[in-house]
Amino acid sequence: MLWDVTTVEHLNRGNMACPGCMASLSMRHMLKVMGENTIVVIPACCWTIIAGMFPTTALSVPLLHVPFATAAAVASGIKRALKVQGKRNINVIVWAGDGGTFDIGLQAISGAAARNEDFIYFCYDNEAYMNTGVQQSSATPPGAWTTTTPSGKEIGSEKKDIIGIIMAHDPAYVATASIVFPEDFYMKIKKSKDKKGFRFIHMHCACPPGWKIDSKDAIKVSRYAVECGVFPLIELGEDNILHKTYIPEDPISLGVYFRSQKRFKDLKDADIEMLEDHINTKNAAYK
Q1: How far apart, in whole angstroms, are the C-alpha atoms of residue 89 and residue 70?
Q2: Which has the closest alpha carbon to 184: 24, 47, 39, 29?
Q3: CA dihedral angle for residue 249, residue 22, residue 206, residue 98, rounded to 10 degrees
Q4: Span 160-179, mean pLDDT?
Q5: Structure confidence at residue 1 as a pLDDT band (50, 70, 90)
Q6: Could you check whether the bond before residue 251 is cis, i.e. omega within 30 degrees of 0?
Q7: Strand ranges (DSSP E) for 73-157?
Q8: For the chain, how big is the Rg over CA atoms in Å?
Q9: What value, to the nearest 5°, has the Cα angle with vertex 112 and ends 110 and 114?
Q10: Domain 2-283, CATH number (from 2.40.50.140, 3.30.70.360, 3.90.226.10, 3.40.50.970)
Q11: Three-class secondary structure of residue 148 per DSSP
């Protein structure tokens, strides 16, 4: 499938992304699949800056910047307006960070999913409010450093289960993806494009400054996340069950992933063992 990737670029050079930003790499390749007949809705997030301020933009497709909580509602309205105009071949997508998805925008997402609105919601999850200074979100993993994490906070078990929340709304399609696994990534974007109704793709996107890693290590650390099971690659099958789309042949320990990032420097070995047991139990539920 990779050999069919278009050479057309819809993300231009000169954007404002940080070096090693996996969210910008994900946007680039997502748009290669979605194509030029796409409208992108972006709430407040890193991508508000990356795309550039009006009247310029790093994207070659139409882009709307909207308030934090409204992305799913705006996308719903755009798609309905296009249908009234008879324009049914235009893809409408939301591109939002974890803060605008797990937290501030969740009510609009729930409403759109319950109505089965016909658009794709992409959450690029860098696990904190990175655009405003690395504040904790409900997608921040237990034990991770942020500027607002209380000192001495007890280690919890996991971040908010956004896939479980979306699944409760009976979506047309839901999946997790990582651009580090491009065949799986492209396959899922293509599937979501070909379906109708509410679709949701959760992307794991390393943030070098927020995760306290070198920009050159972003791809390596992103691969660790999948190989250790902290971010399993799954999708909703035709049987309405979540299935694994990638099973590591030689899984790595959670410790290798955590020790690759300075944001986890305060985690003790016992904490990592506890979290690994929990992650293994959760992943065992996927077919």
Answers
A1: 23
A2: 29
A3: -110
A4: 98
A5: low
A6: no
A7: 91-97, 120-125
A8: 18
A9: 65
A10: 3.40.50.970
A11: coil
**Which amino acid, one-letter code, is at 18?**
C
DSSP-derived 3-state class of residue 166: helix
Residue 38: both structure tokens together: 């796409």
Q: What is the pLDDT of residues 41-97, one digit of tens each?
A: 999 999 999 998 778 899 999 999 999 999 999 999 999 999 999 999 999 999 999
Q: Which residue has the tokens 């930003």?
A: 21
Tokens coding 86 = 């008879």
From the list 250, 256, 246, 249, the residue with the least C-alpha distance to 283 is 246
E strands, the chain, are 38-42, 63-65, 91-97, 120-125, 173-177, 199-204, 234-236, 242-244
Q: Which tokens is 260 given? A: 């690759």
Domain boundaries, the chain: 2-283
Q: Please provide the distance, in angstroms rounded to a whole number, between the alpha carbons at the two ends of the chain.
A: 24
User: Whole-angstrom Cα distance, residue 86 to residue 197?
Assistant: 17
